[in-house]
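Sequence in, structure out.
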Amino acid sequence: MRAALTRRLRATALALPLALVACLDFTPTVGSSPLADDERAPQRDGGAPDVGGDAPPSGVSFARDIRPLIKRLSSDPTGKGCVPCHDGRAPKHVGVDLGGFDLSTLGKLREGGGTSGTRIVVPGNPASSALVQKLRGVYPFGTRMPKNGPPFWTEEQIALVEQWIREGALGGDDE
């Protein structure tokens, strides 16, 4: 079994760079937003979305509402979180190593991974956000997350992530 796993990891390590190169000219629609300019997240002076700060008390807070879902461990009876694979500070972080997607901070989350890039979260547009697509199992690259589900995230948990994104995906990069 160990030999089979070693062969599989080698094959993945060899195939990943080729897959990434093949996608360089690919222009996916997951990052485009059908929202009009006045419906998008507020802009800073430099034109980048103003994603700093936190949501109002009535809104969804990344630190209060989303981060606890991400931090759950696979042994948690409420379902699987992302930390074991996608936190660069975790002892084993295969999701960071293979896919480049690190959830250790909100700033790292916003950078996305190898296939999503900054389209991981499209403020104001959850349907175009790769994060939501991965949780729902409709992202065109890779598997539904969490990878070894079920259990997968519940509809209510995904709806919470969608609401956070709809409200502008607010939060500080250090969260």
